[in-house]
Design brief:
Blueprint: H1 9-16, E1 23-26, H2 33-40, E2 44-49, H3 52-62, E3 69-73, H4 79-85, E4 93-97, H5 102-105, H6 132-138, H7 141-152, H8 157-170, H9 176-185, H10 197-207, H11 210-224, E5 230-235, H12 238-253, E6 257-259, H13 269-274, E7 282-288
Parallel strand pairs: 1-2, 1-4, 2-3, 4-5
Antiparallel strand pairs: 5-7, 6-7
Helix pairs in contact: 7-8, 7-10, 11-12
The structure holds S-adenosylmethionine.
S-adenosylmethionine (SAM) binds at residues 4, 6, 28, 30-34, 48-51, 54, 75-77, 97, 99-101, 124, 213.
Length: 289
């Protein structure tokens, strides 16, 4: 399994402006890549993740710094409650490095990858009730079309939805390859990107309620941080980036904050070469007045 390479690591650390003894929240701790750096620079970290596997990996990596961090299994939509319960209010900075980690997509059992045969699941939080297979096998054609258009910008959304509905009538979709093969059959692929990329992205966003969680978390993060504190967000698709951009613009307009990145920071050519997963990353930063 590939080790997860933290995206825009130097850039996010620079903007978090770590102060020795400062308190930070890593809302998406993953395997602890960003958190490790914050600890190395003398900060203390409250780390959240909705996936118990992420927290296990983070714990293994971080235990050399006892007393300097706290890890909690939680959705960042509940950021305010977790911060209160752990007495971690008024942090100096909050980091969101959204989406999924390499060890999650590489594990076929999670059903996130069209390249690996596994159950059509896609839940990052194993306690969530609805899987990708549930959506694919039960949503009406119109709703599937909308989902592929809105969350995946899939140009053949209507066709894919129609064929799914036709095929599931004879046999429900159970594996990642069932779905990836159907999408592949519908396209003459000339692009470098796998034809099922957009359909899989759309389903993952829906299953994990990625946009709803982000909408819920940003105002909470803003309430929590101290004056002069910063929110740093790394997004990986346009739906997420739009939410962050609009929230940051609104806060600046209302005179409550200043955007430190008018245009998003993107990875260098070098980083994209070393880590192709970083190619769609965008980093934005807001400083509370
Ligand atoms: C890109 S990885 C983070 C990698 C980490 N920054 C590093 O450098 O190792 C994203 C992590 O966020 C978690 N995650 C995604 N959405 C979440 C949410 N709504 N609440 C909590 N954790 C979430 C995922 O489970 C995953 O572990």
């Amino acid at each position: 399994m590939n080790e997860h390479k933290s995206v825009l690591l130097e850039e996010s650390l620079h903007f978090l402006d770590i102060k020795p003894g400062g308190r930070y929240i890593d809302a998406t701790v993953g395997a602890g890549g960003h958190t490790t750096k914050i600890l190395e620079e003398g900060g203390e970290v409250l780390g959240l993740d909705q996936d118990p596997t992420s927290l296990d990996l983070a714990e293994r990596r971080l235990h050399a710094c006892p007393g300097k961090y706290r890890l909690v299994l939680a959705n960042f939509g509940k950021l305010d409650a977790v911060a209160r319960e752990t007495s971690w209010d008024q942090p100096d900075g909050i980091l969101f490095d959204l989406g999924f980690a390499s060890f999650q997509i590489d594990n076929p059992e999670r059903g996130l990858s069209f390249l690996r045969e596994g159950p059509l699941d896609m839940r990052l939080d194993p306690d969530l009730g609805v899987t990708a297979a549930d959506l694919v096998n039960s949503l009406p054609e119109k709703e599937l079309t909308k989902l592929f258009q809105e969350y995946g910008q899939e140009p053949r959304a209507r066709l894919v939805a129609r064929r799914i509905v036709e095929e599931r009538g004879t046999k429900p979709f159970t594996t990642t390859t069932d779905l990836a093969d159907l999408v592949k059959r519908l396209t003459c692929n000339v692009s470098r990107i796998h034809p099922a990329t957009r359909v899989f992205q759309a389903l993952r966003i829906a299953v994990n309620m990625e946009l709803e969680n982000l909408e819920e978390a940003l105002p909470k993060a803003f309430e929590l941080i101290k004056s002069g504190g910063r929110i740093v967000v790394i997004t990986f698709h346009s739906g997420e980036d739009r939410i962050v951009k609009h929230f940051f613009e609104r806060k600046e307009k209302e005179g409550e904050a200043k955007r430190l990145t008018k245009k998003p920071v993107v990875p260098s050519v070098e980083e994209v070469k070393n880590n192709p997963r970083s190619r769609s990353a965008k980093l934005r930063v807001l400083e509370k007045s």
